[in-house]
Specification:
alpha/beta; 14 helices; 16 strands; 34% helix
Length: 377
């Protein structure tokens, strides 16, 4: 038998491959709490809006914050490149499916403007909203000082795959541990999917980790590069690193499952897999408050050489409040995410999100089809 380690392969599981086992005690859903924290910042719902231009405008971020969640603005996106971002967004929305990628590539070549960074941050913070912004590793040394000086509360360093050290001949080398030590604010880092990378990022000082490579509805990284791990396994890998680090140091680092979440059930599976919160993109793009007007596109969609995302048309379905808190007018789990979470917690007998980490998971690929012949078209 060939024992070449390169030929080894292991199983990995997505949301549709598993189900959650009910608890031995049940709790009234009104008795549970859905809080999570990043550093000293506490949020009443475990929802973070992805740094996607079709979603996180300053206005959207404020509205989500009012509802208890956190929105992250893309500091390298439309908001910081154009004085009037609505006109630019309309150009993207109005482009034909065949031309959408070319339009995105063209519009994202406009330079990032320092004065707009400050202006957008001031807009977000104008009513006391917690301000988080996302920067790619190659731009952190350039943009993070400007953002921090402008008053952001949380810095997110995010790329498709992020490691503790970023080496480039084109951009300055980034040593995360050095940057985080110098940062006066919490730093969330992502994305990662393995135990080893998660542990390295945690030991570098990350205040939170984003988990996921390529699962998002508007992302094509898995098709383009072949890289990625299904979200349940990725979340469990990284949450195990978090737990081991906590046992050694007593310091707890929140895990955030980012991407691939379509329903309240997917969110609950993320949390049972070890996440403390989830980052949502396309589900939130369906809200009437989202600036994309029912469209969404991935952060890597405008890449000039190798786009790894696409513009998708998902339509506007309901208000942000209805999407998060209901009442739902559909039966497929795409509305009232927090209601679904509370009912799930009640079934599991868990009063807080951290308690969900102790719940049992089973592999059940037929979960969504068993007995559902009349629902399947």
């Amino acid at each position: 038998m060939d024992t070449n380690p390169k030929l080894r392969i292991s199983n990995a599981y997505s949301f549709d491959d598993i189900s959650i086992v009910p608890g031995t005690v049940t709790i009234d859903p009104d008795k549970v709490t859905t809080d999570f924290c990043i550093g000293s910042y506490k949020f009443s719902i475990p929802i973070i809006a992805a740094a996607m231009d079709a979603i996180t405008s300053p206005n959207f971020i404020q509205k989500l914050n009012d509802l208890g969640g956190l929105g992250v603005m893309n500091l390298e996106g439309i908001q910081t490149r154009y004085k009037n971002p609505d006109e630019t967004l309309k150009e993207i929305i109005d482009s034909s499916p065949l031309q959408a990628t070319k339009v995105l590539q063209k519009l994202y070549t406009s330079p990032i403007k320092q004065e707009l960074i400050k202006e957008r941050i001031n807009e977000i913070k104008s009513n006391g909203t917690t301000c988080a912004v996302s920067i790619t590793p190659g731009k952190v040394n350039e943009l993070a000082p400007i953002a921090i000086d402008s008053g952001i509360d949380i810095l997110v360093i995010q790329s498709t795959v992020t490691t503790a050290t970023y080496i480039s001949d084109k951009e300055s080398t980034l040593i995360l541990s050095d940057l985080i030590k110098q940062s006066p604010i919490p730093v969330i880092v992502g994305n990662c999917v393995t135990y080893e990378t998660a542990m390295e990022l945690i030991e570098a000082g990350a205040s939170g980790l984003l988990i996921g490579v390529g699962p998002g509805a508007a992302c094509t990284t898995r098709e383009v590069t072949g890289v990625g791990i299904p979200q349940v396994t990725a979340t469990m890998n990284c949450s195990t690193a978090r737990d081991d680090y906590f046992k050694k140091t007593g310091k707890y680092i929140p895990i955030i499952t980012d991407g691939g979440i379509r329903t309240g059930g997917d969110m609950c599976k993320s949390l049972v897999s070890g996440a403390d919160a989830v980052m949502l993109g396309t589900p939130l793009a369906q809200s009437s408050e989202a600036p994309g007007k029912g469209f969404n596109w991935g952060m890597a969609s405008p890449h000039p050489d190798l786009p790894r995302g696409t513009r998708i048309d998902i339509g506007t379905k309901c208000s942000l409040k209805k999407l998060l808190f209901g009442p739902a007018s559909v039966h497929n789990g795409t509305q009232n995410f927090i209601g679904a979470l509370k009912v799930c917690m009640g079934m599991l007998g868990t009063k807080a999100i951290k308690e969900m980490h102790n719940s049992e998971i089973v592999i059940s690929p037929s979960l969504k089809t068993e007995g559902k012949s009349y629902q399947i078209k």
